[in-house]
Amino acid sequence: MSGRFAALSNRAFRTLWIGGLFSFMGVQMQFFLRGILAWDLTERKDALGLVYFIFGIALLVSTPLGGVASDRLPKRTVMLVSQLGIVASAAGMGIAVLTDIVQFWMLLVASIFQGVAFGFFGPARVAMASELVGRENLGNAISLQSLAMNGTRVFAPSLAGALVGWSFFGLGPTYVVAAVLAVLSWLTTARLPNPPAALSGAARVSDIADGVRYVFATPPIRNIVLTAFAVLMFAFSYVSFIPALVEGEFGLQEQHVGYFTSSSSVGALLAGFWVAGLADSPRAQAVMTMAGVLFGVMVMGLGLAPQFLVAVVVAVIAGAATTTFQTLSNTLALRESNAEFQGRVQSIMQLGFAGFGMSALPLGVLAEQIGLRPTLVIMGSIAAIAVLSYGVVSFVRSDDDPLIEDSTAV
């Protein structure tokens, strides 16, 4: 197997990929259900933001620990333990809805469980992919994992929306379906090899500080990390407000939230096929920069869209742009990293998702004060300016610094 699917020729990576497919499907359903339930319980934009804010705090605290665990412990073990949190969050919410005792605070508890689980699961999964396929296929492996994630984003929200809207099913059983998918992911992950950790010895608090110093002492990684933070904290936060945009601004129903989310995922899926063949090429950095700017512009476009169908078209382009940006930024950051730091570098990259969750609350408050549409325009503008700045800095460094190729020697 070659080209866009080269990494899948590795049997162990195929197992990792299939396990990720189950996990992403369940997680995407949970994200959809969380937004729907939060909106149904409160009908407030700042409540939507609070759910993601709590998720972001949990992710912020756990992700540095997850990076250290990925470097100091066998990665399969880290993934198996962390996936139990994903199972628990879905099963717990399903039981609460089915027994009609659900309250808003329960969504916050579920967000904490999922945030902590992601903090450990994400760095371990990406670092495991690098370990299984090697650096020569690293970009392809990350692209294929992104393809699996975005493929599930196409189907999972629509499936969840259809099940929720079906009178014989509803929210509770749909949460149970998400929990079953998480269990299938756990069973698949258990079949992976469990090679020894990249670093020997017990984990230390100083491991986190060492990882941060390494990132900031390596300009190519540092610049990518800071740019990815800005994009995730501001532009990507638009996903927190999809229920408010579709139901509040356009006056539509819950199933339309699923259609909208799936439309952005169609663009992401199509981009994923393309990026899989590009991620290991010399053009990756330039394409990443253009995609990041385009994503910011499209988030601005969501704030300006006059009709639902126009917003759907904008969402398709936004989905393609964000997939391209995230895949290539992850690939470039890991490619620049030494093997013993890959778990921690990936954990720092993932902190951008914590920032996305944390920024959702103040952005939700802002949306309550000035309106959702102006807030989306501001969010997209900040992200586009940040990526443009990265492009300028990278261009200047490549022209003026003859030692840039040696900048990873720390």
The structural class is: mainly alpha
Q: Estimate the mean pLDDT confidence.
A: 82
Strand content: under 5%
- Total discrete domains: 1
Low-confidence parts: 402-410
Helix content: over 70%
Provide a count of the helices. Answer: 14
Q: How does the overall form come out from the CA principal axes?
A: globular
The largest sheet is: none
Q: Any overview of this molecule?
A:
This protein has a single domain (3-406), classed as MFS general substrate transporter like domains (Growth Hormone, Chain: A). The chain contains 14 helices and no strands. It has helices at residues 11-42, 45-72, 75-98, 104-133, 138-165, 171-189, 205-216, 219-235, 242-249, 254-276, 284-304, 308-335, 342-370, 372-400. The two termini are 36 Å apart.
Write out key terms for the chains shown.
globular, disordered C terminus, mainly alpha, 410 residues, 14 helices, Growth Hormone, Chain: A, 80% helix
Per-chain topology:
Blueprint: H1 11-42, H2 45-72, H3 75-98, H4 104-133, H5 138-165, H6 171-189, H7 205-216, H8 219-235, H9 242-249, H10 254-276, H11 284-304, H12 308-335, H13 342-370, H14 372-400
Helix pairs in contact: 1-2, 1-4, 1-5, 1-6, 2-4, 2-13, 3-4, 3-6, 4-13, 5-6, 5-10, 5-12, 8-12, 8-13, 8-14, 9-10, 10-12, 11-12, 11-14, 13-14
